[in-house]
Structures are given as C-alpha cells and as structure tokens.
Amino acid sequence: MFTQAITRSPAANFAQGLTTSALGQPDFDLMCQQHQAYITTLQSLGLKVQALPALPDYPDAYFVEDVAIVTPEIGVLTLPGAAARKGEVAHIESALAAYRPLARIEAPGTLDGGDVMQVARDFYVGLSERTNEAGAAQLGRILAEFGYTVTAVPLADGLHLKSSVNYLGQNTLLLTSTFAEMAVWDGYDLIVVDEDESYAANTLWVHGRLLTPAGFPRTQAKLLAAGFDLIELDVSEAHKMDGGLSCMSLRF
Ligand code: CIR
C-alpha cells in the first residue's frame, strides 16, 4: 500500500522537453488540467500528495518517476540517461530526504525510474537508451541489502520498460506483444495490448484500482474482462511528450 505521492507541476515550457512522438503541439492549459485531475485521483485513492513547484530549467521534471526509486527502506536517487535531465536529481533530493534515507546511482551508471518495475520483492530494470548495465547493477547492489532481487531486461523497443510492461497486481502484467514473448515473464499471467494501443500498457496500479489512459477501448475491455477496476484519465498532453500515468508521480 502507498500512503504518499510526490508530483511536480509542469512548467509553461514543458513542450521543450524531450520527445519522439509526432502527436502534435502540446497545450499548457490542458496539460495543467490533466495533471490536476491526476493529482485529485491519487488523493481520492487515499494518497497524500506533495506537489513540488515547476522547474522551467528542466522541462521534463514533472516526470518525477524518473529521478528516484522508493521502497519502504530507502530512496535511491537515479542518474537519468538523458543529459538534459541529469540536473533534475538535485531537485528531488531535498523532498525525498524528508521521507527516506537516500542512496544514489553514480556515473558511469545511468538509470531512469521509468525503466524500473517493482513486483513485490522483485524489481525488473529495463536496459534502454537511458538505463545502462552499470546503473542496473548499482541498483541491484543497493536493493539486495534489503532482500530485493533485481533482474535486468534488455528492451527491444520503447523509451522505458514501463512504456511497455506494467504490473497490475494479482500476478498479472499488462504488456505489448513485443515484450510478451520474453521468458523473463514466465509464471505471470499476461494481458497483451493490441499493437495500435501500445501506449495503454502504461497503466498504473494504485490501491487495487488501475489508472488507465483514456482512448484505448480494446485495452479497457481486456482489463474489465479480467476483473480489474478502472479509472480512466485523459493524459493526451503527457503522451505527446512520451510520458504517461506512471511517470508523473513517485508513490510510496
Ligand atoms: C523524456 O523523454 O525523458 C520525457 N519526455 C518522458 C519521460 C517519461 N517518463 C517515464 O516514462 N517514466
């Protein structure tokens, strides 16, 4: 169970963040409305939300998931793989220090939180353009001290592991077809999103409910058929910046 979330307001220049998507120019007012609805939803699920101020020097900084990994025992400050995002870490450090003792990923390791998926005592870390083997190994050493396992998963595509694979609870993963073939998921029940709904793989478990992006009806139908309880949220503007529901908070 989580009791707390940390978010950060998007800055007015958030559209200057990194993106590979060709979904059009994002709108700041709409982004703010969608971000506020996301916060309100987390609050309605019982989380206390600490909303940090916008950081115009770091237009991707509202994707706070990428700069830390938080367990009940420790907070791990990451070292983001993108040069433009490395400076975000110093801005999460003071907020997180109030909740947890801190460790950090150090160069030459790089690690983005979007590549880190937790399933109870097991972590899976995507090796991506942002996260390298040294970063994954450092996280493994830090978390091993607390009895967690860390398994590296090379990415075939996508920005981050959680762009394509997410844990829904009940031993079930929601994932894209590219990832569904991987032996590393043996033993889990898999729900595979349709190819043209791959964005919906970034669905977020919070307290037994699933926050899922609006506009992906076949994924919603699959989740409902499997008995999951859904909250649909429109995150069209974050999608334009290659981000989604998990990326916009740290939950612990
Ligand atoms: C980036 O490219 O770093 C941001 N525009 C998107 C980060 C999304 N974060 C995530 O998936 N955890």
Protein described:
The protein is an alpha/beta fold and 252 residues long. Helices cover 22% and strands 24% of the residues. It contains six helices and 15 strands. The chain has helices spanning 28-44, 89-97, 133-144, 177-180, 217-225, 236-240, and strands at residues 4-8, 48-52, 68-70, 75-77, 102-104, 116-119, 122-127, 149-154, 165-167, 172-175, 189-192, 204-206, 209-213, 229-233, 250-251. α5 (217-225) links the parallel β13 and β14 (229-233). The mean pLDDT is 97. Citrulline binds next to loops.
Q: Which distinct ligands sit in these coordinates?
A: citrulline
Count every helix, treating DSSP H or I runs of 4 or more residues as helices: 6
Q: So what's the overall shape?
A: globular
**Main sheet?**
3 strands, mixed
Task: Give a brief rundown of this model.
The mean pLDDT is about 95.
List its traits:
252 residues, three-stranded mixed β-sheet, 22% helix, binds citrulline
Give the SSE layout.
Elements: E1 4-8, H1 28-44, E2 48-52, E3 68-70, E4 75-77, H2 89-97, E5 102-104, E6 116-119, E7 122-127, H3 133-144, E8 149-154, E9 165-167, E10 172-175, H4 177-180, E11 189-192, E12 204-206, E13 209-213, H5 217-225, E14 229-233, H6 236-240, E15 250-251
Parallel strand pairs: 1-2, 4-5, 7-8, 10-11, 13-14
Antiparallel strand pairs: 1-15, 3-4, 6-7, 9-10, 12-13
Bound molecules: citrulline.
